Amino acid sequence: MNPLVVNNVVKHYADKTAVSGVQFEVSKGEIYGLLGANGAGKTTTMRMILGLIYPDQGEIKYNGKPYSNELLKNVGYLPEERGLYPKIRVSEQLIYLAQLKGMSAKDADRSLKYWLERFEVPENYNKRVEELSKGNQQKIQFISAVIHNPQFIIMDEAFSGLDPVNVELLKATVKELRDNGASIVFSTHRMEHVEELCRNITILHRSKEVVKGSVKDIKSKFPKEKVWLQTKEEVAGLEQLSGVKAVHRHENGLEIEIAEEKVAAQILNHALSQTEIEHFQVKEPTLNEIFIRTVGDRNE
Amino acid sequence: MKSLLERLVIVMNNFWTVVRFTVMNKLKAKAFIISTLVFLLIISVVVNIPYIIMQFQGGGEDKTQTVGYIQDGQSLGSVTGQQLEQYFANIEGSKLTFKGFATSGNAVSDEETLKSELNAGELYSYLQFGEATDSGFPEIIVKSEKLLDYSVASQIEAALQVIRHNNILSEAGLTEQQMKELQAPIVVDAVQIKGSLSAGGEGEGKTAEEQGVNMGIIYFIIIFLFMAVMISGQMIASEVTAEKSSRVMEVLITSVSPLTSMFGKITGMFLIVIIQLASYLAVGAINLSLPHNAEMLKELNIDLSVVDPMLLVFAGLYFLAGFFLFATLYAALGSIVSRTEDLGNAVMPMTFISLAGFYIAIFSISTPDSLLVKICSHIPLFSPFVMVLRLGLTDIALWEVLVSFAILLVTIYLAVVLSAKIYRTGVLMYGKRPSMKELRKAMKAYKI
């Protein structure tokens, strides 16, 4: 049985349904992506996993057992909005939070120093949080979620507010936590992160699951509707081929939207008959496109 | 299945971690240190004000004040002046002395003489005599440069009363023995007795002296409780709101159960308030025991040994119970607002309730037997203030105290359950302050 099982949970708030029948499992050493537009039910789902609120129906099991207070020290949480004491020193508050998770002050201190070193900010140890830049605060927040080496990690918008260098740094860390066996639930609006990190995802829309499965399967289920073409010389008459919906001319190539996958072969033949081909690719839809299509369609 | 003991150990560990964190952060906070120091300074000044005022009044207690008058040897005024001079000279340690100045025969130049003596600092004030009055003494005017200084005038009044009294009595031919008898003070002692078994222990009721000391102690306890509730209530509520508005609460509640964190915070604040108030007391006591204040303290003549220990025990219990009742409610109120700006409005009801309890107790201190006091001593939020009155100043039946305390304990239990629920719900609700209805709905939705 997988360490984290979310079984058909339903949550109503007074007059509206926040989450309706969400179901997924996270295995050991896996990052599970939870996607959705704002208000789709991600945060409610995460709060239920964290045990802050209880589902009206369905159940959540951790290592086969229902939620209990002892579980708290095995859970790390990175909230969407940053939550730290602004006027208290980094060392004091992180050791405090780690102690609440059952660590000794000494272990917590050692762990904190390791993580600060790891994020290349050891000088923040004695600073107050309000003195830190947004990116550095984010690093401290991240440390607060993982300092006690939890088995379950819930990350809501882990990389917001970071520059690309630090995003890479944290991404590498998340992967390492995964490889060390943590079960991670991860939410973000940045689809390229999902593609890189998550094995399986759920896209929520208006409290319901609309797309679910492994990233690979999801992509293969959506038709390939784009062709990338780079040729030595200009190719004429592409627009006239049947099945070609649009041709976008980019600086170093053409992006062609097609109605069906088999049109791609016709494009290739058409181009070959005119000139030499440098690059030809039938592109998979990106998660971004899938997201916009699934969530966008239903908006109408 | 984990043993209950193990779970308890986790909860207690977390509890003390929260307590320690709360106390340490408060003690280290600049605002707290500065406000405490300022208050200590104010206390030091206030305690020494009587002494300081005395210093400013020119010369302090050892310096005598000289009052001048014109001596012409025959007029009624001169005789009165002479009598006053003798009277004050005979009183040991008197701070007033009188000095006669020979007349020049001219009233205007006489006054000029006295005025110049006053300017030279030789005289504190001088007397002017007018027409004779029915009292047997002339009209007397005390002239001095001081504004509204009645002390000389009233001392002269008192002295003349005695002088006249003695004159008339000796003219009537009374013996010295008879005069002494007439002047001996009559003493009536009020001792309060009790009819039935009371909470005051075995005793024979309360003597006037005990009542006096008890009254002082009660004032002290009521003010102490009120300050503790107001200071810590505000601090608890604003700490909770600050944790909520900085969103650190979301991280906290995934680490420690809300109940543990709430009680950890309350206990931490309790320690802080006790430390703070104890330091005020200590500084006040140190200042009072400085040599120059020793005499004043002696005059107050407080004998703490007459205080009934049972009063202190009950007062302590009521203090603790009252503190925790208010503190839990303040924590709950702090948890429903998400911004510090909204906090004032939210805690207003609690502030009014504690003010009401405080004033009912303070204003009823002379009527501790009134119906209002009896009723309020059973109303949970008022009883910590009001019950000490009845304990200290009346002989209240033990069962009444127990009933009142039981009501208080039940209320605390209910308040804790309710506050825990509000807290648990409130910390997850952001945005505008929720109404009672919204709060109830949310509680239902969160299944709390």
Q: Which strand order does the major sheet of chain B show?
A: 2-1-3-4
Oligomeric category: heterodimer
Helical content band of chain A = 25-40%
Principal-axis shape of chain A: globular
- CA gyration radius of chain B, whole angstroms: 32 Å
Distance between the termini of chain A: 39 Å
Radius of gyration of chain A equals 23 Å
* Mean pLDDT rating of chain A: 88
Count of alpha/pi helices of chain A: 9
User: Which structural class do you get from the secondary structure elements of chain A?
Assistant: alpha/beta
Q: Sheet with the most strands of chain A?
A: 6 strands, mixed
Number of domains of chain A: 2
Q: What share of the residues of chain B lie within helices?
A: 55-70%
CATH top level class name of the largest domain in chain A:
Alpha Beta
CATH A-level architecture of the largest domain in chain A: 3-Layer(aba) Sandwich
Report the uncertain regions of chain A.
none
Q: Whole-number average pLDDT of chain B?
A: 81
Relevant CATH superfamily of the largest domain in chain A? P-loop containing nucleotide triphosphate hydrolases
Largest interface: A-B, 36 and 31 residues
What's a quick, concise take on this entry?
With 300 residues, chain A is α/β, with parallel strands linked by helices. In chain A, 33% of the residues lie in helices and 29% in strands. In chain A, strand 6, helix 5 and strand 7 form a beta-alpha-beta unit.
